[in-house]
Structure formats: C-alpha cells, structure tokens
Amino acid sequence: MSHGLTLFLIMLAAGIVGGGVNYLLVGKYGTVFYKDWMLYKAVFVGIAASFLVPLFLNTISSNLLLESKQEGTQLFVFAGFCLIASISSNRFIKSISDKFMQQLHDVQHQVNNVKQDVEALTEKNTEADDSIIRNDPYEIRMLHRGTVAEEIQLEQSPSLHADPSLKVLQALQEGDYVFRTVTGICKETELKESCILRILQEQIQLGNVVRSEREAGIRYHITPAGRKYIGRHDHVRMDILSEKGEQIS
C-alpha cells in the first residue's frame, strides 16, 4: 500500500471515529442514533476537519508527514492529530480558516508594499520622458486651468510654486528621499502642516500621491500620474508666458 493511500485511510477513519465521539459528547439521545441526522452531520464535519490536518502541519512547518513515511510509528502520531482535530472539529476548522485568511492578508499586504516600493524607486531612478504631446494652446489651457483666480495666479507667476498643490508635488518629486514625511515637506515648502495634509489627501484621491504605512511611520510618495500632472502644468505655464510675450511685443 502506498504511503499516500495509507494517510488517506487514516484521515478517513479518524474523521469517522472522531465525528462519532463528538456526537456522543454533545448529541441528544431522544431517538435511535442511526436515525439521528446529527450523527451524520458530526461524522461529515469530523472527516472534513481530519483532512485539514496536513494543511495545519504545513502551517506550523512540521515534517510529520515525511517522517511517517520513513518511520512507521509516526503514523500513530499522525492518526492522533487527525482524531483530535475531528473530535474538536468546529473549533479546529474555524481556527485553521482564521489562521489561513490572516496569513493570506499579511502576504497580500506585503506584496502591495513591495509593489509600491518598486514602482516608486523605479520612477525615481528612471529618466523622465519629456516628449509630451502638445495640442492647441487654447485647448490645453481650457483643459487644465482651474478657477478664474487660479488662472490669474498662474499667469502672474512663472513659477510652479505659486500653486500650493504643485509645490507639494514638486517637493515629493525633487526631494532627496522617495518616501517623504509631512514634517519634511513642511520644512521644504514652508507650508502649514494642516494645508499639506489637505493637499496630500486631495492628491491621493486624484491618484497623484500614494500614502503607505511603513515600519517607521506614514510616508508619501509621488506616482507617475503625479509627475505627468506637474509636466502638464509646466507646459501650460510656458504656453501662457509665451502668449503674454507675444502680446507685449
């Protein structure tokens, strides 16, 4: 008999016996036992719990399955695990399910953090492509201008720093660190912390900034969309300045 078939039969037998024991411990004896559907329910759940034992052993990095192939006495230990699991089937299944889902969540969280780190570091160390498609200057201004006050402010100042949002984005883009703190942005931009937090929240919703929870605390970094946002406004500013120069001349 193969080792795999032996383990299968042990899990099946332990599930049936453990389910029966579970029924005897908590069952009601008002009817004939073989006519009581609770018995079959207990046996079925016990078998399911017994077949989860290999997964449980894998989560705790146990070599019991491999050792049982090399040493026959370890099969009795494995059978004991399966029997205990089937007797306490409800609690065992819930425990395994909760632990597995927590591990899955932790892995997903780590993958997301690594993905954000890689994307940010790649953007920081990759030369930007400044070949932006230029449409009609009037159309660009209509697409990217905000309120009338913002238009006047943009026309009056040739600097990106006239707009607090652009000032924060440029601090994220041109700073010495990829992942920035609010304190660091405050020192660089000379804006109030409350103003920066509001701007960061707005830019996160627009997809221009990402907020990440790291071991050292909350950090922010600019996204490719944020870099393009700065580039678009830079070109709009240049178009406006060029147009003003033509009007003056």
SSE layout:
Blueprint lengths: L2 H24 L10 H14 L2 H7 L4 H7 L3 H14 L1 H36 L12 H8 L3 H9 L7 H11 L7 H8 L3 H14 L2 E6 L2 E6 L1 H25 L1
Antiparallel strand pairs: 1-2
Helix pairs in contact: 1-2, 1-5, 2-5, 2-6, 4-5, 5-6, 7-12
Could you please describe the fold and organization of this structure?
With 249 residues, this protein is mainly alpha-helical. The protein folds into two domains: 3-96, no CATH class; 129-248, Arc Repressor Mutant, subunit A. It is built from twelve helices and two strands, in the order αααααααααααββα. It has helices spanning 3-26, 37-50, 53-59, 64-70, 74-87, 89-124, 137-144, 148-156, 164-174, 182-189, 193-206, 224-248, and strands spanning 209-214, 217-222. Strands 1-2 form a two-stranded antiparallel ribbon. A hairpin with a 2-residue loop joins β1 and β2 (217-222). α7 (137-144) packs across α12. The chain starts with a helix and ends with a helix. Mean pLDDT is 75; it is low at 125-161.
